[in-house]
Amino acid sequence: MSQVVIVDGETFLVRRRDLRTYDYDWVTGPHARYGFTTGSSAEVTRFSEHHEEAIRGFLAGIDPNTGFLYDD
After folding, report:
1. At 6, phi and psi to the nearest 5?
2. What count of other Cβ atoms lies within 10 Å of the Cβ of residue 55?
3. Residue 39, exposed/middle/buried by CB under 10 A (0-12, 13-18, 19+)?
4. Distance between CA atoms of 52 and 7, rounded to whole angstroms?
5. Element of type H or E holding 16
6. Any residues with CB less than 8 A from the CB of 28 and at least 6 apart, and which?
7. Mean pLDDT of 32-45
């Protein structure tokens, strides 16, 4: 099962892999099939807060020149 989540004007398709793991596909991003995965030692109980925080953290790391995460 997947859910569309919009944060700061960006759209992500969020899929729950198991009780503690979520996959995020950046639908409105500049690259096809780009996104990230989160995992937790505890089950997510605040669904929307968890996803908004994870997505904002991901977007903060995006290089606007490349559309990919900054290369350290």
Report:
1. -115, 125
2. 23
3. exposed
4. 6
5. strand 10-18
6. 9, 10, 11
7. 85
Number of other residues whose CB lies within 10 A of the CB of residue 53: 13
CA distance 38 to 16: 10
The per-residue pLDDT for 45 is 67
Amino acid of residue 63 = D
Q: In whole angstroms, what is the distance from residue 30 CA to residue 28 CA?
A: 7
Q: How far is the C-alpha of 19 from the C-alpha of 26, rounded, in Å?
A: 21
Question: Tokens representing 57?
Answer: 């953290």
**Cβ pair 43, 50 in contact under 8 A:** no
Scanning the structure block, which residue is given the tokens 């859910």?
Answer: 3
The CA distance from 33 to 19, in Å, is 23
Residue 31 pLDDT > 70, yes or no? yes
Pick from 2, 61, 63, 60: which is nearest to 27 by CA?
2
